[in-house]
Design goal:
Largest sheet: 22 strands, antiparallel, barrel
Number of strands: 38
CATH class: Mainly Beta
Helix content: under 10%
CATH superfamily: TonB-dependent receptor, beta-barrel domain
Strand content: over 45%
CATH architecture: Beta Barrel
CATH topology: Maltoporin, Chain A
Shape: globular
Structural class: mainly beta
Number of helices: 5
């Protein structure tokens, strides 16, 4: 977080609530404009900078630590967290946005190539909003599983009253991976202008897992992020924002756990050198209260994301010691923008809050792999590994364009609020050959359009209590990596082939929920049911092709599937029971879901098991100190599809964490945390759900035992 991040806290107790704080009363993600949470017929979580401070969020994936319906997807020890999953739907099916700009998609080709979506340092984050359930009616194709919207700080948010500027410095130690953080920032606010400049540096190693019987994988990383923002307010009510963001992460890894296992049976050394970069430029202009127009915002962006990964392997091949070098390069370039408008008006007794807008995103994707094999006895080098001749592309150069038009109207009449939204999307994919793609005759272009709807109703039963019903459609266009992927490894007789007949994914969700807020009590609950049509299963095993004898994989549509579940959150001040407990608050939440393939009748393995959280919050009455004792319970996944393999299913586990924070209110803030107090040996289902029994990575994926984290903020 940006050094003076907690300067926006009005009182220490505001940092206590795990699920609800005063700032959560207004949310943006559900409507694209600021609206009271009580008007939203859906479940929305808000993670503030204050909460991230006391929880000591180190990586972006840490925001899911205490969110029952949200999980951080895990790739491997080398590639780490790859995205977020909401209600069992993850990967590229969850829309991730930073200040309205879509974050890069994930792309992976097995053990040697994997691009993460979470290239973001929490240092610059003001708040994160999470919409659970389909958001396609406002956000388009990638929001079939939900939306995660990240908002950065403005400079004037970080300047204390009576000052025009703040300097800050932050230092931190994270025992989970012996990580170290150093950061510096400067915020300035004038009459009409404000600026923010921030730089952070992190370094660390592999997580200290509690695995047994295998060699640990060794990881060393260095991470830099620079961020700048300038805001100017015009006299006529307009506001201009310009922001620049640069992110770089260097990772050196030594993968020891796989040595001697399966295809690495003859491998004696496996090392990786990975570099991920992202640069982003965003400009936005906003006007408000211009007669008939209440608000309009125009935002334009350019974003470039690159991944460079080199794998070094020493092994014996056909009795000869060889050195293998594999290279993977991915470049994703995005241009786009959004025009969004808001109107507040009345028609008779009906009060309307309407939003309408248009979005455009242009993306260019280019992927290449290269490699060589060197005979260590003769020194002879050839650009071929396992029968693959390099360089090559696993998918052709691809250009996608998505244009979306959307409108939503929120109508209030007394105790009733109705919401309806519609969006039209036109999605096109153009594949281009350049002689590097191995089979230019197998290129598929795509052009599809889709209308998506949502409708909901909220009824205020009495003051502070409401019920709601919500219906939402979801839509996801087939990605380039599923349509045109062509991977051929002759030595293993293994092929992944394109599928030009992939259909878009569709979903229908029905959700019923309630909210109750009174004095020191806040409660919310929801039940939901989602039907999926043409759900895309990436690289499904088709068996042996009788014509070629090759084990063949191809992305395909699952005709029908469904997921259903229930979630609830409670925040209760204990002072209502006894005055001596006035400094205590209990927060609790849980999420349970089930998923099934309607064709095969088998469970969906990506759906997560039960997760429950409990937190006892304490704030001192005579000092600016807060402390939180948390318990997170991970249930055992009771239904698993073992038809493809005997997968590892982790046992249930309960983990206890203790965190505390001191805020002087002036120049010093400090946080300390002890995690996994009981040194519990456990696994997160998201980390191991695709691991076969006997896979040595199971032990590497065991979560860390007891560790401590400390951060210190100084500002002046």
């Amino acid at each position: 977080m940006v050094l003076a991040s907690v300067s926006v806290v009005a009182a220490p107790e505001r940092a206590l609530a795990v699920h609800t704080t005063a700032i959560e009363e207004v949310v943006v993600v559900a409507s694209k404009i600021a609206r009271p949470l009580d008007a939203i017929p859906a479940q929305v979580s808000v993670i503030t900078a204050e909460r991230m401070a006391i929880e000591q969020v180190q990586e972006f994936g840490d925001i899911a630590r205490y969110e029952p319906a949200v999980e951080a997807d895990f790739s491997t020890a080398r590639f780490g967290n790859s995205g977020l999953s909401i209600r069992g739907i993850g990967g590229n099916r969850v829309a991730l946005e930073f200040d309205g700009v879509p974050m890069p998609q994930r792309y992976d080709v097995g053990n040697f190539a994997d691009s993460s979506r979470l290239a973001l340092d929490p240092a610059i984050v003001s708040r994160i909003e999470i919409l659970r359930g389909p958001g396609s009616a406002l956000y388009g194709s990638d929001a079939i599983g939900g939306v995660v919207a990240v908002t950065s700080f403005d400079g004037d948010e970080l300047v204390r009253p009576g000052r025009d500027s703040n300097f800050g410095a932050r230092a931190g130690y994270f025992g989970v991976n012996d990580g170290v953080l150093g950061a510096a920032s400067h915020a300035w606010a004038g009459d009409r202008d404000s600026t923010l400049a921030s730089f952070s540096y992190r370094t660390g190693g592999e997580p200290k897992n509690t695995g047994r019987g295998v060699a640990d994988d060794r990881i060393d990383f260095d991470q830099w992020q620079g961020f700048g923002k300038w805001t100017h307010e015009f006299g006529f009510g307009g506001k201009l924002r310009l922001s620049l963001d640069y992110f770089k992460r260097d990772t050196d890894s030594e993968i020891r756990s796989l040595l001697g296992y399966a295809r690495f049976v003859n491998t004696t050394e496996l090392r990786g050198d990975d570099v991920q970069r992202r640069n982003r430029a965003t400009v936005s202009f906003e006007i408000a209260d211009r007669g008939w127009l209440d608000q309009a915002t125009l935002m334009l962006y350019r974003q470039e994301n690159t991944t460079e990964q080199i794998t070094h392997e020493q092994r014996t091949s056909r009795g000869t010691p060889v050195s293998l070098r594999r290279e993977f390069n991915l470049r994703e370039l995005d241009y786009g923008g959004e025009l969004r408008t808001r109107w507040d008006f009345a028609t008779g007794p009906l009060q309307h809050v309407a939003v309408a807008g248009a979005e455009w995103d242009h993306q260019r994707l280019a992927e290449t792999r290269d490699g060589s094999e060197t005979d260590r006895l003769t020194g002879t080098t050839r650009r071929e590994i396992l029968g693959e001749a390099f360089p090559l592309r696993d998918l052709p150069k691809s250009v996608t364009n998505e244009v979306g038009l959307y409108a939503q109207d929120e109508i209030r009449l007394g105790r009733v609020s109705l919401v309806g939204a519609i969006r039209w999307d036109d999605f096109s994919l153009d594949a281009h050959t350049d002689g590097v793609f191995s089979d230019p005759d197998r290129l598929t272009d795509l052009d599809t359009a889709k209308l998506t709807f949502r409708a909901g109703a909220t009824v205020r039963v009495w003051e502070g209590a409401q019920v709601y019903a919500h219906y939402a459609q979801g839509f996801r266009a087939p990605p380039a990596a599923d349509i045109n992927l062509l991977l051929d490894i002759p030595l293993f007789n293994y092929r992944a082939i394109p599928n030009p007949d992939l259909a878009p994914e569709r979903s229908d969700t029905v959700e019923l929920g309630t909210r109750w807020r009174r004095a020191e009590t806040r409660f919310e609950a929801a039940v939901y049911y989602t039907d999926y049509e043409d759900f895309i299963e990436s690289r499904a095993n088709l068996g042996v092709d009788p014509a070629t004898g090759a084990l063949t994989f191809q992305s395909r549509n699952i005709e029908a599937a469904h997921i259903y579940g229930v979630e609830a959150n409670l925040s209760q001040g204990l002072g209502v029971a006894a005055a001596c407990l006035d400094s205590l608050r209990l927060d609790a939440g849980f999420h349970w879901s089930r998923g099934e393939n309607d064709v095969s009748g088998r469970p969906l393995n990506d759906v997560h098991p039960l997760k429950a959280t409990f937190a006892l919050n304490w704030h001192a009455t005579t000092a600016p100190v807060t402390a939180v004792l948390r318990m997170t319970h991970f249930g055992r996944q009771g239904r698993v599809d073992f038809s493809d393999a005997a997968f590892f299913v982790p046992p249930a586990a309960s983990v206890f964490d203790l965190t505390a924070r001191y805020d002087s209110g002036n120049n010093v803030q400090a946080s300390v945390g002890i995690y996994n107090l009981t040194n519990q040996r456990y696994w997160r289902y998201a980390d191991v759900r695709r691991f076969d029994l006997g896979d040595p990575r199971i032990e590497v994926a065991a979560r860390p035992g007891t560790y401590a984290q400390v951060t210190l903020d100084l500002r002046y």
